Automatic annotation (TrEMBL):
<keyword id="KW-0472">Membrane</keyword>
<dbReference type="Pfam" id="PF01594">
    <property type="entry name" value="AI-2E_transport"/>
</dbReference>
<dbReference type="InterPro" id="IPR002549">
    <property type="entry name" value="AI-2E-like"/>
</dbReference>
<keyword id="KW-0813">Transport</keyword>
<feature type="region of interest" description="Disordered">
    <location>
        <begin position="430"/>
        <end position="449"/>
    </location>
</feature>
<keyword id="KW-1003">Cell membrane</keyword>
<comment type="similarity">
    <text>Belongs to the autoinducer-2 exporter (AI-2E) (TC 2.A.86) family.</text>
</comment>
<feature type="transmembrane region" description="Helical">
    <location>
        <begin position="342"/>
        <end position="366"/>
    </location>
</feature>
<feature type="compositionally biased region" description="Low complexity">
    <location>
        <begin position="48"/>
        <end position="63"/>
    </location>
</feature>
<feature type="compositionally biased region" description="Pro residues">
    <location>
        <begin position="433"/>
        <end position="443"/>
    </location>
</feature>
<feature type="region of interest" description="Disordered">
    <location>
        <begin position="1"/>
        <end position="65"/>
    </location>
</feature>
<feature type="transmembrane region" description="Helical">
    <location>
        <begin position="233"/>
        <end position="253"/>
    </location>
</feature>
<feature type="transmembrane region" description="Helical">
    <location>
        <begin position="315"/>
        <end position="335"/>
    </location>
</feature>
<feature type="transmembrane region" description="Helical">
    <location>
        <begin position="386"/>
        <end position="412"/>
    </location>
</feature>
<protein>
    <submittedName>
        <fullName>AI-2E family transporter</fullName>
    </submittedName>
</protein>
<feature type="compositionally biased region" description="Basic and acidic residues">
    <location>
        <begin position="21"/>
        <end position="33"/>
    </location>
</feature>
<feature type="transmembrane region" description="Helical">
    <location>
        <begin position="147"/>
        <end position="168"/>
    </location>
</feature>
């Protein structure tokens, strides 16, 4: 019995110490919470019914806690996650397309500012693609590079100059005969209109002629300004021809060094792909120019012979025009053929014009279905829709020069893009880890391991 009070005393002392330590820990935790969130708000005293509830006091900037009866508010999602996936993809593609469109717009503005220089350089590239094989053959025969370049360039430009002089000479030589035939053709057309079932009277025809004469007389100033603009255009054409000649000469002589210098401007990571695409693009351009020249020459010869045998004047100049307009795909053939038909109609009458139309259509059908697929081949084949759209876009941007260079530009771009795509796939396959070698088959039962 004497031991029980001592044991109870020790138990009470232990409990007291434990309670004291618990109170200390609670005070320490409360102090840490007050240090983080501030002291707790005082509990308001009971107020009589109808009295206004005072706002709880707290530190500056502290938002009071909502009352217990307030409804719970769901957490708002991240705005980026709230937007549907399709709209996010469209927005990502949209701003990139805007950047690309802005870049193209700036590029087109720069090109339009120096349009003469750009067209002269592109024409020099086309002429170089035509003459480069001749330079290579002369160098294989043992001629130095400078001499081979000079002989090829001088011969090519002399031939072009002679062709131009011959066309001008033929036009000037037959101008009187053509004028007389035009007057006779107009009289025949007038008589045909009077005898036609359209009930056209001579007074109506005279009124039309008088209106044309009055229009020309009224617009004399516009015609004069157009003539002055024509003088400016002639000066620009001569400047462009000189730039084309010098560019062609240096491209024939130092074309390889120019290409190597251009490769140094390309980033190092993209340089192997561009270096491989360049020769293939040049081969495509060369094939296009040579094939187009051959096809245009065949068109000019056969349509010119048909016009000559039908006794249409200016057969040789018309053949040259057909040759030149053949470099504008689709559109050039229509314009040159229509010009030949109009000349035949005005000079020789309706029957001769119909025969010229038959000749033009026959030669163009043979060209489109036989000559171009056989001569140009699949390397430079472009879809007709792409041809029409690119010729129209090139004509709107840079006139006749833009229409001429549009299709070879698309053909070269098609070759470059195809090669770069294949090159990228090949590089991706090379970077892939090699699969492990197959394990040998397990031995069958009864065979030694």
């Amino acid at each position: 019995m004497t031991r029980t009070p001592g044991w109870l005393g020790r138990l009470g002392e232990g409990l007291s110490r434990a309670g004291k330590r618990l109170q200390e820990r609670r005070a320490q935790a409360r102090a840490e919470a007050e240090a983080e969130t501030g002291p707790p708000l005082p509990v308001p005293a009971e107020l009589p019914p109808g009295a206004a509830q005072p706002e709880p006091a707290g530190p500056a900037g502290t938002v009071p806690a909502p009352p217990s009866y307030a409804p719970a508010v769901a957490a708002r999602p991240d705005p980026a996650n709230a937007i549907p996936w399709g709209i996010r993809v469209a927005a990502e593609a949209g701003w990139r397309l805007l950047v690309l469109a802005g870049t193209l717009w700036v590029l087109m503005k720069v090109i339009s500012t120096v349009q003469l220089v750009v067209l002269a350089f592109v024409a020099a590239l086309l002429i170089t693609a035509l003459l480069q094989p001749t330079v290579s053959r002369l160098r294989r025969l043992g001629l130095p590079r400078g001499l081979a370049t000079a002989v090829t360039a001088v011969t090519g430009f002399v031939i072009m100059g002679l062709v131009g002089w011959f066309v001008v000479w033929q036009v000037m030589d037959n101008l009187g005969d053509v004028s007389a035939r035009v007057r006779d053709g107009i009289e025949e057309l007038k008589q045909w209109a009077l005898d036609s079932p359209f009930h056209v009277t001579e007074s109506q025809i005279n009124d039309i002629a008088k209106n044309l004469s009055d229009t020309i007389g009224t617009n004399t100033e516009e015609i004069t300004s157009a003539g002055l603009t024509g003088v400016t255009v002639v000066a620009e054409v001569l400047t462009g021809m000189l730039l084309t000649m010098f560019s062609t000469l240096f491209l024939l002589y130092d074309g390889k060094k120019v290409w190597e210098w251009w490769l140094k401007l390309v980033p190092a990571q993209a340089r192997p792909g561009v270096a491989g695409a360049g020769p293939r693009a040049w081969r495509t351009l060369t094939a296009y120019v040579r094939g187009t020249v051959i096809v245009a020459l065949i068109d000019a010869i056969f349509i010119g012979l048909g016009i000559y045998f039908l006794d249409v004047p200016l057969a040789v100049p018309l053949g040259v025009f057909i040759f030149l307009f053949a470099f504008i795909p689709l559109v050039g053939a229509v314009i040159s053929g229509a010009l030949a038909v109009v000349v035949a109609l005005v000079t020789n009458g309706v029957f001769t014009a119909l025969m010229v139309l038959v000749v033009v259509l026959a030669v163009q059908q043979i060209e489109g279905h036989v000559l171009q697929p056989f001569i140009l081949g699949r390397a430079v084949r472009v879809h007709p829709l792409a041809v029409v759209l690119t010729v129209a876009a090139g004509g709107l941007v840079a006139g006749i020069g833009g229409a001429v260079v549009a299709v070879p530009l698309v053909a070269v771009t098609n070759t470059v893009v195809g090669y770069l795509r294949a090159f990228s796939e090949e590089q991706a396959l090379r970077r892939m880890p090699m699969p492990p070698p197959p394990s040998p088959p397990a031995p069958e039962i009864g065979e030694p391991a």
